[in-house]
UniProtKB/TrEMBL annotation:
Gene3D superfamilies: NAD(P)-binding Rossmann-like Domain
PANTHER family: 5-KETO-D-GLUCONATE 5-REDUCTASE, ALCOHOL DEHYDROGENASE, PUTATIVE (AFU_ORTHOLOGUE AFUA_3G03445)-RELATED
InterPro entries, A to Z: NAD(P)-bd_dom_sf, Sc_DH/Rdtase_CS, SDR_fam
Keyword vocabulary terms for this entry: Oxidoreductase
Coiled-coil ranges from the UniProt annotation: none
GO molecular function: oxidoreductase activity
Name of the protein: SDR family oxidoreductase
Taxonomic source organism: Frankia nepalensis
């Protein structure tokens, strides 16, 4: 899709890659709507871009609807909805224990994407055009051995994107799932890794990530990756699932 002149909602655009993607879309001529749960961040980023924004909790359908209403009031339509907000959650051993954390991740990583699809698909199908872009993670292709809640909900996000693509691409709606690897945002940096940690050395800056996303939107590819090698996990699982599981080896601490 050529994003120039399009109206794009980017969730989680108060921080991290959401900010960089919102700014990159605006630089490419899109009219961007900023939204995040953090009101101060929304205000700052919307001001920097020179656009509208709304603080909203996207784990609720009311929050998603409020953002859609703002976008339509400000710009008349929604062409691109990028469901991007996410959380990493606390470190283990909580990932099998904490129902509240599972519920929050389920709501934010899956239901927020579903609420957005429910909200904007009718107008996109009617126009035979539009774009749903959903951020999952490379974890959705492989696994995150330390965090069951994050890993499972990101798998579910990919499954939802895949279903939407199968069902709605024939109506002209573009659907992509963005499955990035490590990126230099607070989500990664809050882990306290040293600078020479492999995850930090491999991580892309938010600006590099925004370029990847803009290229993905232009290509309209279903799977958008920061590292093409991440798709190998799908091949390896399909070839020999037990060998793939066996690679993880020793108990993790
Ligand atoms: N950073 C990484 O290494 C990495 C890797 C793979 C995938 N991701 C995914 O990328 C996306 C963006 O993450 P990031 O790295 O920019 O992290 P980030 O923490 O910088 O940004 C995430 C944003 O989501 C917002 N948010 C959290 N809960 C919300 C809610 N209930 N309603 C609305 N907004 C909410 C936060 O306030 C924050 O601004 C996430 O979905 C994350 O899971 C990140």
């Amino acid at each position: 899709m050529d994003v120039a002149g399009k109206v794009a909602v980017v969730t989680g655009s108060g921080n991290g890659i959401g900010v960089a993607i919102a700014k990159r879309l605006a630089a490419a001529g899109a009219r961007v709507v900023v939204t995040d749960i953090e009101a101060d961040s929304v205000e700052r980023v919307a001001k920097e871009i020179g656009t509208v924004g709304l603080a909203a909790d996207l784990t609720t359908e009311a929050g998603v609807k409020a953002v859609a209403t703002l976008a339509r009031d400000a710009y008349g339509r929604i062409d691109i909805w990028h469901s991007n907000a996410g959380i990493a959650g606390p470190p283990p051993p909580d990932s099998l224990q904490d129902d509240a954390q599972w519920n929050t991740m389920w709501q934010l990583h899956v239901m927020a994407h579903l609420y957005a699809a429910r909200e904007v698909l009718p107008e996109m199908v009617a126009r035979g055009d539009g774009y749903l872009l959903q951020t999952a993670s490379s974890v959705a292709l492989a696994t995150q051995p330390l965090k069951a809640d994050y890993s499972v909900t990101k798998h579910a996000a990919l499954a939802l994107s895949e279903w939407l693509a199968v069902r709605y691409r024939p109506y002209g709606v573009k659907i992509s799932c963005f499955c990035p690897g490590a990126m230099l945002t607070r989500m990664l940096l809050d882990n306290g890794f040293p600078d020479d940690h492999p995850a930090i050395r491999a991580a892309l800056t938010p600006e590099q990530v925004a370029e990847v996303v803009l290229r993905g939107l232009a290509d309209e590819r279903f799977l958008i990756l920061t590292d093409p090698e991440d798709a190998r996990a799908l091949v390896d699982k399909g070839t020999d699932y037990d060998a793939w599981i066996g690679r993880f080896g020793q108990p993790l601490r």
